[in-house]
Amino acid sequence: MNPLRWEKRLNAFVAEREAWFAGLRDAGKTLEGRRRFMKLAAAAAGVAAGSSVLPHSFQLVNVVGASTDSQGAGARQAFSFAYISDSHLYAKTVNERFVNRVQRAIDDVNALVPQPDFVLYGGDIAQLGQKDELMLGAELLRQLKAPVKMMVGEHDWFLDMGDLWKSLWGPPYYSFDHKGVHFVTLMSVNEKDFWTEKKLTPMERMGIVAGLDDGRQSRFEVGDEEREWLARDLAKVPKTTPVVVFSHSPLYKYYRDWNFWTEDAEQVQALLAPFETVTVIHGHTHQVLTNRIGNIHFHGMLSTAWPWPYAPTGLPPLTVQMSRIDPFNEADGLGDGGFSTSAGGRGDKQYNLWNRNPMTVSARYLASNGAVDTPPAPPFKSY
Amino acid sequence: MIRKSMMKLGVTTALGATLAVTSGVFAQQKEMKVVPCDGGEPVTVAGFETGERLSEDKAQKLADTLMEGWLARQDPAVAVAWVRERDAAATNAEPSQAQSMQSTDINPRDLVLWEKEVGREIAYGDKLFHDDKLIGGLEGVSCAMCHPNASNTHPETYPKFQLQLKRSALLRDMINWCIENPVRGPKLAADDPKMRALEAYILAQRKGVPLEYGKH
Questions:
Q1: Which of B140, B152, B177 is facing A95, going by the closest CB pair?
Q2: What is the pTM of this model?
Q3: Do both B76 and B113 map to the same domain?
Q4: In a domain, A85, yes or no
């Protein structure tokens, strides 16, 4: 089928699915609503049967909460998005394994039924900020059927300070609204200048930043300018609106030596604190990572390139670790995942660990401070 | 051989031989007279230039001559006992009390020197650990990518049976496994300077962690 026709059909499919969700919400309220919903469901089944779209089941997560949503937030609906992160691509001729793993993640996401509303790319698509690395990443991500929300990582940035990345994907920080949720993508991996005084070349600068345990670099920060922008952006948003923030580095202080850290994390948290419901999804740490500070829930993302050990100190207590990595199992600790949000704006974080059982860290688990819905502990903790 | 000559020189020092340089008639034909500490017959070293450092051979010869003179002046029983002890030490037999006292005599300069030497090895290992090209990696993957600060290398748990290698594995076996697989480089011999340096770096990062061989 030609891509344009496919896209049309896909859009029709998505629209039909959204109607389904809206119908389901109404169904919980009135008899009339339930009747409408049943009609819609029958029609949807017919559409699915008559199209080349694969037979599927609607996998609704937390949608029941929608019917009791008395806030009247009409635009709010349950939805999900997928993520792929930290692929660290070299040129295809240098390392094909890393390319294959991005492909595996793309195939995973493209096979989702129903499709996620969008795909977050969590940063570090390139390993050393090279043109062929970034272009290869762009080429690979074009295969995704769902729209891509792009985030930048330090490996993409410090060769040309983001010039090529920005020309490919636009501004490194931005916000958008989707189904009643306010989304903010931050560029959280700015570093104070450590290169000018030492007269480093761009490649030397890139190499130092690319070394996780290389202490010659500075610490990550959002920075004054961007925080001012964030404050202005959030000023327009009602405090009851759920906010989801994407950042490459964790927006809290976990382990300084590896930049599992954002230097001005407290200041960013202060801007987010007035909102009732805030979720931060971050990359960089290449591991299952869970934290909660006040009303802010934090989730890490898996890498497709290599996993990282848990840092020797600072691990947030709510984190249930992923199993210790088996070095003989080539894709262990790697994967992709998603985030399903209920109409209330809170959501469950999925870790699709490729060679293990998938893990879900639910909003209930975090909201209860770990009292309920605890993910199963791994057989092997890290050393 | 080295051990033997070191011991002899050590004894020479212990005897406290005094050096006396006598000027000859011509500047080119200077000689050195060395007097043993027991005041015995001096030994003359010919062809000695002022400020010259004796070659190892010459010094050894001088020490041997001094020792021979000293032995000749001793009571035969003492001389025989001394020779027996010397030969036993040279063939790695139980060290004499004199020797063990000598080997524990560590001065601050020794400590500085040793720390520097070990530090050099660790620093080289650090470099190798962070640079895939230095260990012949073909795909841009270095050790530190998965193991920042050598984390999760747990050298304290070896030897342990590694099912996938079907044998009891040492740290070096796992280093080689990683070099050949994720890094895609050539395996290192057990005594390869690079292997020694990598082991040194990894072990140095786990200072203070109790040994727990066999831990899984």
A1: B140
A2: 0.72
A3: no
A4: yes
Instruction: Give the C-alpha separation, A40 to A46, whole Å.
Output: 10
Q: In three state form, how does the secondary structure of A155-187 look?
A: HHHCCCCCHHHHHHHCCCCEEEEECCEEEEECC
Q: Which two tokens stand for residue A336?
A: 């992709």
Secondary structure of A283-342 in HEC code, one letter for each residue: CCCCCCCEEEECCEEEECCCCCCCCCCCCCCCCCCCCCCCCCCCCCCCCCCCEEEEEEEC
Please report residues of B whose CB lies closer than 8 A to that of A307: 146
- Residue with token string 């969008």: A118
Residues B91 and B134 occupy one common structural domain: no
Q: Identify whether residues A339 and A205 lie together within a single domain.
A: yes
Domain co-membership, A15 together with A154: no
Please say which residue of B48, B71, B105 terminates a domain: B105
**Do A97 and A224 have their domain in common?**
yes
Looking at the structure, do residues A268 and A361 belong to the same domain, yes or no? yes
pLDDT of residue A2: 60
CA distance A207 to A197: 17
**Residue B25: band (very low, low, confident or very high) from pLDDT cuts 50, 70, 90:** very low
Residue B169's CATH number: 1.10.760.10
Q: Are residues A20 and A116 in the same domain?
A: no
CATH number of residue A183's parent domain:
3.60.21.10
Q: Write out the residue range of the structural domain in which residue A100 sits.
A: 79-367
Number of structural domains chain A divides into: 2
- The predicted structure's pLDDT at residue B103: 57
Q: Are residues B98 and B150 in the same domain?
A: no
Task: Classify residue B72 as exposed, middle or buried by CB count within 10 Å of its CB (0-12, 13-18, 19+).
Answer: exposed
Provide the number of structural domains found in chain B: 2
Distance, C-alpha A293 to centroid of its chain: 19
* Cis preceding-peptide flag for A317 (omega within 30 of 0): no
For position A56, what pLDDT does the model report? 37
Question: Does B116 share its domain with B167?
Answer: yes
* Between residues A194 and B111, the one the model is more confident about: A194
For chain B, list residues whose CB is within 8 angstroms of any CB belonging to chain A. Answer: 130, 139-141, 144-149, 151-152, 154, 157, 164, 174, 177-178, 181-182, 216
Beta-carbon separation of A306 and B139 below 8 A:
no
**pLDDT tens, residue by residue, A341-350:** 987 778 999 9
Does the pLDDT of residue B201 top 90, yes or no? yes
Which of A135, A156, A141 has the alpha carbon at shortest distance from A105? A141
Residue A129 near residue A89 (C-beta atoms within 8 A): no
ipTM of this complex: 0.79
Is residue A134 in a domain? Answer: yes
Residues lower than pLDDT 50 in chain A: 28, 37, 40-73
Q: Is residue B36 part of a domain?
A: yes
A337 sits in the region (left: phi over 0; alpha: psi -120 to 50; else beta) called: left
Residue-number span of the structural domain to which B83 is assigned: 2-105
What is the count of residue pairs from A and B with beta carbons less than 8 Å apart?
A: 49
> Length of chain A in residues, anyone?
383
Return the number of other C-beta atoms located less than 10 Å from residue B101's C-beta. 10
C-alpha span between A90 and A131 (Å, rounded)? 10
Q: How confident is the model over B142-166, as pLDDT tens digits?
A: 999 999 999 999 999 999 999 889 9
What's the pLDDT at A142?
A: 98
**Distance (Å, whole) CA A128 – CA B12:** 62
